[in-house]
Amino acid sequence: MGSPGILRAFPHYTYEDYRQWEGRWELIQGVPYAMAPLPRPKHQLLSGRVHRLLEEALEEADCPGCVALLPVDWKIAEDTVVQPDNLVFCGKLPEDGPLTEAPVLVFEVLSAATAAKDRILKFNLYQEAGVKYYVLVDPDREEAEVFELSGGRYRSRGVFVREDFTFHLGPCAINFPFARLFRRPS
Question: Which residue, 22, 50, 168, 171, has fewest beta-carbon neighbours within 10 Å?
Answer without folding.
Answer: 22
